[in-house]
Design a protein that fits this description.
Blueprint (H helix, E strand, L loop, with lengths): L12 H10 L6 E4 L3 H9 L5 E3 L7 H11 L5 E6 H6 L2 H9 L4 E7 L2 E2 L5 E2 L7 H7 L5 E3 L3 H13 L4 E6 L13 H11 L7
Parallel strand pairs: 1-2, 1-3, 3-4, 4-8, 7-8
Antiparallel strand pairs: 5-6
Helix pairs in contact: 1-2
């Protein structure tokens, strides 16, 4: 049986990330997974509420969960690749169990470990949305196309519980490059969330 994702349009990560960033009006926190996911987040609209992962594969969803629990009145969005999600599938059951009302999870699925040489990921043979639903995240959907992606983002940002949406993407490289300064990234994010005052 072919995964449901094969019936969706192949889209572009930077275009989808730009569409998402354009919808952010209320200082929502955005956690970008390692590599091209955060390169595109950086290029789509650098904001103090963005956190850019460096070298910690699979931790965008767990970090976003922590932010969502610590700041329940702030919407939190996590952007992750399929390969990275496969490294931490167990986080989906934790997120479903804790059920933060303000967390949106976005999976960009191109079926490859793009940044390390485009090796195929096991996600080519799995339906990540079905896995998420099986872990208890009932509000999990594939985006059929760009218009559907925007609809699902709007729906997730208004939902009263965690939501996951996944999009099939092409193999285009990330746009731009994140400034690789972990301390600066952390400090800017903490300032952006209002948990640290400027010196």
């Amino acid at each position: 049986m072919q995964p449901a994702a094969r019936n969706t349009k192949v889209m572009n990560r930077f275009d989808l990330t730009s569409r998402l960033v354009a919808k952010l009006k209320n200082e929502e926190a955005v956690i970008g997974g390692i590599g091209n996911t955060n390169f595109d987040l950086w290029a789509a609209g650098h904001r103090p509420q963005n956190f850019y992962m460096l070298g910690s594969m699979g931790l965008a969803f767990p970090i976003a969960l922590g932010v969502a629990l610590a700041q329940p009145n702030r919407r939190v969005i996590a952007l992750e690749g399929d390969g990275s999600l496969l490294m931490q599938l167990g986080c989906l059951t934790t997120i479903a169990t804790l059920a933060p009302k303000n967390l949106t999870l976005v999976v960009m699925d191109n079926g490859i470990y793009q940044i390390t040489g485009s090796q195929p990921t096991p996600a080519q043979h799995a339906d990540l949305v079905a896995i998420a639903a099986g872990c208890g995240l009932s509000n999990s959907n594939w985006a059929a196309d760009e218009e559907d992606f925007e609809r699902l983002i709007d729906q997730a940002l208004a939902a009263d519980g965690p939501a996951l949406l996944a999009a099939r993407i092409d193999d285009k490289p990330g746009t731009g490059t994140t400034k690789r300064d972990p301390v600066q990234i952390r400090e800017r994010f903490m300032l952006g969330l209002g948990v640290r005052q400027p010196l």
